[in-house]
């Protein structure tokens, strides 16, 4: 969609778009893998046919090995099924394990990945998305519990009878009472990583309230130490247990007679091989994974992305994908992050912008695609975004985009902006931040003018992620 706001005639810099830079797309590796997997009819015929519901078996097995090594857990292909990526799988999880009448609410750690809201709304949760604030360690567990209790007791008072589900989950699936949505590692947008103790408390709370935690673990392979040089040989230091690993380590919960567990890890190849492959994986208990594979759209033709799944399985077999991530993707993102943070220090910090260097309190670790800034001396993020489009042809993420839709008061981000360092060329990252600095300075000197300008902009004309 083209921008409805007339753009300044300067080179456009898009710091909103959360895409990988074209250099980070392993086209040649994927092309060679495609040739290999289609060369022999013994392999190519099943690959080009309908897939098993749980997905391409060699990819399940190789993922189990790779993830097992990475997270230090016992590999088990029965805990994994192949998906069409994190977004598609989020929709499938909701189709199979939630009910818009029975499931009370979707609790979203805020600021949240804004594009998830529509997926929840499509599954019948419009008006029932609830914000849960986070602090430096991640989700505020006490506040989440307080809000869950308040909701449950309000609903008990308002309607005596237990809500009856619309759906019949059948023998392979169950309906959860609550959903908690989190991006615990290198979160989009805040860049934060949840501490281990918060992870443990979150899993325990999910067990207590019959909640399913859907954990988008899409940035887990993109973490780097902040100190010192970019060293491709140096392995990432941070391998915190996923929520699903913690859930598994606690054994089956007392009230979980069928062993569905209370967490699902939503993994994706989008950030490590390319969003266009539209392939990912879900990891949970074997019962949960079996149930997920019984989602109607998987039963009709099998798991999505069968051809890409075969190509990616081949790249895991040869080790080329792992090596591409280690030697190219992660070091390039690390370098880009440093370039952007240096520019932020020079051009924005003197104007009161505060970022976080580390994604985990007390550790020099960062990762993901985004820098999240608080404009402590103003102006509000929405004003900066409007003026950046008009005067600089720069597109940024304004904080209020990442508030929880329908519960904007539950956690507010009016003073924040999100800048993406993965997409634009490195020179544009610096130039974009420099031009934003000049703009914010002008704005701080004449706020009334910019308030008037923003008042004339319709919300529907403001940047959205699909802008090109
Ligand atoms: C937290 C989060 N979840 C999911 C996605 C989308 O993942 P996929 O491309 O696998 O659908 C993104 C992409 O930006 C993301 O940041």
UniProtKB/TrEMBL annotation:
Residues 45-422 form the Aminotransferase class I/classII large domain. It comes from the Eukaryota. InterPro entries: Aminotransferase_I/II_large (IPR004839), PyrdxlP-dep_Trfase (IPR015424), PyrdxlP-dep_Trfase_major (IPR015421), PyrdxlP-dep_Trfase_small (IPR015422). Keywords: Coiled coil. The keyword Coiled coil applies. Residues 134-161 form a coiled coil. One of its GO terms (molecular function) is 2-aminoadipate transaminase activity. PANTHER family: AMINOTRANSFERASE, LD15494P. This is Aminotransferase class I/classII large domain-containing protein. The lineage of its organism: Eukaryota, Fungi, Dikarya, Ascomycota, Pezizomycotina.
């Amino acid at each position: 969609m083209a921008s409805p706001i007339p753009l300044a005639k300067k080179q456009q810099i898009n710091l909103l778009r959360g895409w990988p830079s074209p250099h980070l797309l392993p086209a040649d590796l994927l092309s060679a893998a495609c040739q290999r997997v289609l060369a022999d009819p013994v392999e190519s015929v099943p690959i080009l046919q309908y897939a098993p519901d749980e997905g391409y078996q060699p990819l399940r097995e190789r993922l189990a090995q790779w993830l097992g090594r990475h997270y230090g857990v016992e590999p088990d292909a029965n805990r994994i099924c192949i998906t069409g990526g994190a977004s598609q799988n989020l929709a499938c999880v909701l189709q199979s394990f939630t009910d818009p009448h029975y499931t009370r609410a979707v609790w979203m750690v805020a600021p949240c990945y804004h594009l998830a809201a529509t997926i929840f709304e499509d599954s019948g949760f419009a008006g029932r998305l609830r914000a849960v604030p986070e602090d430096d360690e991640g989700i505020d567990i006490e506040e989440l519990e307080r809000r869950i209790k308040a909701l449950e007791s309000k609903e008990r008072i308002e309607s005596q009878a237990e809500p009856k589900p619309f759906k019949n989950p059948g023998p392979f699936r169950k309906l959860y009472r609550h959903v908690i949505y989190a991006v615990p590692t290198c979160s989009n947008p805040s860049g934060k990583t949840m501490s281990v103790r918060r992870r443990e408390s979150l899993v325990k709370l999910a067990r207590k309230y019959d909640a399913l935690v859907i954990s988008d673990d899409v940035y887990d392979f993109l973490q780097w130490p902040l100190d010192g040089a970019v060293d491709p040989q140096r392995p990432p230091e941070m391998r915190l247990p996923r929520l699903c690993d913690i859930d598994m380590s606690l054994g089956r919960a007392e009230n979980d007679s069928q062993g569905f567990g209370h967490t699902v890890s939503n993994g994706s190849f989008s950030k490590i091989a390319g969003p266009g492959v539209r392939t990912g994986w879900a990891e949970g208990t074997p019962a949960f994974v079996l149930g997920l594979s019984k989602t109607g759209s998987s039963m009709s033709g099998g798991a999505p992305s069968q051809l890409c799944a075969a190509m990616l399985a081949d790249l895991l077999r040869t080790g080329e994908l792992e090596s591409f991530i280690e030697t190219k993707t992660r070091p390039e993102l690390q370098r880009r992050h440093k370039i952007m943070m240096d520019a932020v220090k020079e051009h924005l910090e003197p104007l009161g912008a505060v970022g976080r260097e580390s994604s985990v309190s007390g550790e020099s670790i960062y990762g993901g695609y985004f820098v999240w800034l608080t404009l402590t001396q103003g102006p509000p993020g929405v004003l900066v975004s409007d003026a950046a489009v008009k005067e600089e042809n720069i597109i940024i993420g304004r904080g209020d985009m990442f508030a929880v839709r329908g519960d904007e008061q539950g956690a507010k981000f009016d003073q924040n902006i999100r800048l993406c360092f993965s997409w634009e060329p490195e020179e544009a990252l610096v130039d974009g931040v420099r031009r934003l600095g000049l703009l914010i300075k002008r704005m701080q000197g004449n706020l009334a003018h910019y308030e008037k300008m923003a008042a004339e902009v319709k919300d529907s004309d403001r940047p959205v992620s699909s802008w090109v």
